[in-house]
Specification:
Layout (H helix, E strand, L loop, with lengths): L2 E6 L5 E7 L23 H14 L1 E8 L7 E9 L2 E7 L5 H11 L1 H7 L14 H64 L6 H31 L8 E3 L1 H17 L4 E5 L8 E3 L1 H17 L6 E5 L4 H30 L1
Helix pairs in contact: 2-3, 4-5, 5-6, 5-7, 6-7
């Protein structure tokens, strides 16, 4: 292992220069010379940084010092400051300090013992310079700009896809609404033309066709409303509407679904006519249908769903409880008989 060991006083002046192996031929000096001057004029700044670090922390490990005196262009210095002064080990390659002290132990055991405390030291990472930090920040800024452009492109593509999806939903809903309206119209026409000539079962089937078609039309209206809402084009068509009629129609439609689960939907509206309300009947129809269909969907078999307006609720509370108990019991018995007959 080739290298040098320098001993200096506390002011950094050279006391002695000890060669290990072939030494470092370009690095020489006389006693009393400040050790930073040994590395050449171009390396004074780096050597002074090393000297300052030794004065502050008391030790340095593999500190790079640029120097033209060595063919590699840089020397690595490890050293410490103790009671006798400073002792420095200079090598060409980083990490060469252990091999240098091992070779020094055979030549000068006392000097090797002075350097022994550095054997357990951890090298202090070199702090990046201003140019390196600037280059790193420039690279990060460029990467951030690229990510922002990619994100903007993805957002634009997503917005375009969402717009296409909304247009497709609107087209499908419009195309589905027309045949459903035809089914409802023909069901109502048959009911009017054959009035008085239909049996109860036939009339019930015709009514179920009409109400199921209306229910599907409501689903289509929901899809249209969702597409318009997402596109920011939802508009309300307000006009005076009969709230009681809206409630009765939705209760009638959802009773078809409720019968499949033996659920009773009870409707209670005041005897006096309700005042006309300035609402959008189509949107309110959707709202009522969603509430009642969810009530049917998430209620247990044989339950009672009670629908009422808020007025005079306290006056009808006792009657409602009694009717609910009686009708629920009757409904459960009827369902049990129907299920038994089907088996």
């Amino acid at each position: 292992m080739d290298g040098l060991v320098l001993t200096c006083d506390h002011d950094g002046r050279l006391r002695a220069l000890h060669r290990v192996g072939a030494g470092l031929p370009g690095l020489t000096g006389k006693p009393g010379t400040p050790f930073p001057a040994l590395f050449g004029p171009d390396a004074v700044a780096g050597a002074l940084d090393l000297f300052s670090g030794l004065r502050k922390s008391g030790r340095a490990l593999d500190h790079p010092v640029p120097s033209r005196l060595d063919p590699a262009g840089v020397l690595h210095v490890s050293g410490l400051s103790d009671a006798e002064g400073m002792v420095l080990a200079v090598t060409r390659a980083p990490g060469g300090f252990p091999a240098l002290t091992e070779a020094l132990d055979a030549l000068n055991p006392r000097l090797a013992r002075r350097l022994a405390p550095l054997g357990s030291a951890v090298a202090t990472p070199e702090l990046p310079g201003a140019d390196a930090l600037f280059d790193e920040m420039t690279l990060l800024n460029n990467e951030l700009a690229n990510v922002q452009r990619a994100l903007a492109k993805a957002n634009a593509e997503l917005a375009a896809s969402n717009e296409q999806k909304n247009r497709l939903m609107g087209m499908l809903a419009h195309d589905l609404r027309t045949p459903l309206q035809v089914v409802v119209g023909f069901a109502e026409l048959l009911e009017q033309r054959l009035d008085g000539r239909l049996e109860a079962t036939e009339r019930a089937c015709l009514e179920r066709i009409r109400e199921s078609s209306l229910s599907m039309r409501h689903m289509v209206e929901d899809a249209l409303s969702l597409a318009a809402l997402q596109a920011g084009r939802l508009r309300l068509a307000r006009r005076p509407s009969d709230l009681a009629a809206l409630v009765r129609r939705n209760v009638s439609m959802n009773r078809v679904l409720a019968e499949g689960k033996c659920i009773t939907i009870e409707l209670s509206v005041p005897e006096r006519p309700l005042p006309m309300a300035d609402v959008d009947p189509a949107k309110l129809d959707q709202l009522l249908n969603n509430l009642l269909s969810n009530a049917v969907k998430y209620s247990d078999r044989g339950c009672l769903i009670y629908t009422s307006d808020a007025a005079d609720e306290e006056d009808r509370e006792s009657r409602r409880r009694s009717r609910r108990t009686k009708k629920q019991n009757r409904r459960e018995k009827t369902c049990e008989r129907q299920l038994g007959s089907k088996r």
